[in-house]
Design brief:
Layout (H helix, E strand, L loop, with lengths): L1 H20 L1 H4 L7 E10 L3 H13 L4 E4 L6 H7 L8 E5 L33 H7 L2 H17 L7 E3 L3 H4 L2 H14 L5 E2 H8 L16 E2 L1 E4 L2 H5 L3 H10 L4 E7 L6 H6 L8 H11 L2 H9 L2 E3 L2 H5 L2
Parallel strand pairs: 1-2, 1-8, 1-9, 2-3, 3-4, 5-6, 7-8
Helix pairs in contact: 3-4, 6-8
Length: about 300
């Protein structure tokens, strides 16, 4: 039995790796092409975030985003993208609310997902609290509710990803639900190689019934950090990243909004990920400099929508 389990594990890894090696080719690119998704997280967070994200997609190089359905401004997104039928718009699975004076809770009934609710009646502030207090059943119920809520307002999700990475930083059961729902709704879920090898492969019994050959694994995910913001700055980081992008499927996670009164109020008491940070992201990815860097480094922009068609 032990030998059989080892064989199954080897076959799973081999099949997924073979699928990934052919992903660029399946999209119509050479294996050594540099593919990039420039993904603006958090649309739905605020009016400022919404209109900046749409502007960055229409006038800049941002080509993907995902919606936070529990956020108060989520319904506006459906109106803003009505003239964008080909938009790459996923569901940003949101299990936390990190802000001090801007609070929201689950879409599901609080009585049915009580483990996701903190003492103040809203989502927990961090992923660790979610992992400690919420059951896998509660998390899956809320994930499904958020996908269904997006569909109900007229959005056709192109993919799933996770706000603050809470789906990935909690329990393997959360990841199993995430992949199961992606398969059920017929859309890809963002998964990085490290997560796949570290969570899926060692816990294969949790993923029984899920076609792992259909999991589209991202080669590299990049995101600015507080340390980068405080040292070299976001513009220098993005410039260096684009100049040195590696072949394969890359995802760059950014956050765009305007440095206006609304965003400053929402992000009060935050030293990072605040209104100024989001304005800097918007400015860079709507600049001619960003467009030129993509051209000079022969970077091909792709979307989750394209990947989903595979």
């Amino acid at each position: 039995m032990k030998n059989l389990s080892t064989l199954i594990l080897v076959l799973i890894v081999f099949q997924v790796n073979a699928q990934q090696r052919n992903l660029a080719e399946k999209l119509g690119y050479a294996p050594n092409d540099k593919l990039l998704i420039i993904h603006a997280d958090d649309i739905g967070l605020a009016h400022s975030e919404n209109i900046a994200t749409v502007a960055a997609m229409k006038n800049g190089v941002v080509n993907s985003t995902s919606i936070m359905m529990p956020s108060p401004w989520a319904t506006e997104v459906a109106e803003l993208v009505k003239d964008m039928p080909d938009i790459d718009l996923g569901v940003h699975i949101t299990l936390t609310d990190e802000w001090f004076n801007y609070r929201w809770g689950p879409i599901s009934s609080k009585s049915e997902v009580s483990g996701l609710v903190g003492e103040d009646g809203y989502f927990h502030f961090d992923c660790a609290s979610v992992a400690q207090n919420a059951s896998p059943e509660e998390v899956e119920k809320e994930m499904r509710a958020q996908i269904d809520a997006a569909i109900a307002i007229g959005i056709k999700p192109t993919h799933l990803d996770s706000h603050m990475g809470c789906v990935f930083s909690g329990r393997p059961e959360f990841v199993a639900s995430y992949l199961r729902l992606a398969e059920e709704y017929g859309i890809p879920a963002m998964v990085v190689e490290e997560l796949y090898q570290g969570v899926v492969v060692p816990n294969q019994e949790l993923f029984a019934g899920i076609d792992l050959n259909q999991v589209k694994i991202v080669d590299n995910v990049a995101i600015g950090s507080p340390e980068i913001y405080d040292s070299i700055g976001l513009s220098a980081y993005y410039t260096d990243l684009l100049k040195n992008l590696q072949p394969g499927l890359n995802v760059l996670l950014i956050h765009v909004a305007y440095d206006d009164e609304e965003m400053r109020a929402i992000t009060t008491r935050f030293d990072h990920w605040h209104a100024r940070w989001r304005q800097k992201d918007f400015d860079f990815f709507t600049s001619e400099r960003a467009k030129k860097l993509l051209e000079e480094n022969n970077i091909k922009l792709v979307t989750w929508k394209e990947i989903g068609k595979l």
